[in-house]
Specification:
This protein has strands at about 5, 10, 20-25, 35-40, 45-50, 60, 70-75, 80-85, 90-100, 110-115. By secondary structure, the protein is mainly β. The protein is globular.
Amino acid sequence: QLHLVESGGGLVQPGGSLRLSCAASGRTLDDYDLAWFRQAPGKEREWVSCISSSDAITLYADSVKGRFTISRDNAKNTMYLQMNSLKPEDTAVYFCNSDPTEFHWGQGTQVTVSS
């Protein structure tokens, strides 16, 4: 059973940066396309970014394009999301999963962008 753990969230001022991590245990992620999702208060969970199993293809939602960078380290069974130029509207709980989603959702990591 694969277990996903997100970390790296926190409180940051507008314009600041954070790096999120998604660590997996119980199964290797090598063969999976992976993605980040987020859910803001009162809103549905939305897709943010994805990365192919080979690391060759990355895609981003228009709202984060140019500010966020997704990456993965298959040797560490971990995926990352570097978030720069953060905006208050990026405030949400961030989750990781395969794309399309196959695994149980983790607890997520809270990102709060506020002055």
